[in-house]
Amino acid sequence: MFFRCGAFSRTSKKGLRLTKPVLETMSPETPPKGRLPKHVAIIMDGNGRWAKNRLLPREAGHVKGISAVRKVVRAARELGVQYLTLYTFSTENWRRPESEVRHLMGLFRRYCRADVQKLHGHNVRVRFIGARSGIAPDIAELIEHAETLTANNTALNLAFAFNYGSREELAEGMRALARKAAAGQLDPESITPEMVGGSLQSAGIPDADLVIRSGGERRLSNFLLWQAAYAEFVFTDKLWPDFGEADLEAALAEYAGRERRFGGVSAEKPQGRTSLAETALRTLASEVFGSD
Questions:
Q1: Which terminus of the chain is more exposed, N or C, with fewer CB under 10 A?
Q2: 138 in active site
């Protein structure tokens, strides 16, 4: 949301950009609904740099990031995305200066009080994934209220990853399965990937199809490590406060143009090998393995 901030942009000593943003070359056309990802997850990065570029305090970037959240949530709902997960506040973010964390918690309170009722009015279901321990009681109440109020909504499933760390989520899930095994309620040999997924905080939310990261960085930062196993990734150098509907549409168009094989091969009609191809294959095998 308005919380995620990254490091410095990637430039060389000569000021040249070392990586090209994917979105620069993408068509802004919205893909047909049949090619839309079911679950889009976004790492909202670049608030601090947005503020720094304008000689503003970092907190200004977080505030401006709220506008981007609202634009993206509205666009996702209108475009027909079923699940949207926003990386809002990570467990690592507690290491930031106390004044910044205090400001972020205040913004979270203001956002919930100002927007949850509006989201409910638009038939959006709100969920939170992340640890509930260690957060202020009034914030826990806001989370509980949002989830209860919107539990039966169906237009968009909106999840905020708040006080979230994927490694801890996985460890917590494994501890839950281990307790069942120790109590004789679960045979360890019967544990499946589906059972692991069902033990996570995101249980009930499908795996991510598309992960978008703003701000120029190319990493997951402890976000949905299990759920993004087969996700497509789209990166943009645009800082989060400047991210909007057109950027989301461009990312969806990029996704629609990719072929997802999940470790397999494309379903093309097999063609017979020519003698030339067979000869080339035997020559290559001889070079790699030597003559038998």
A1: C
A2: no
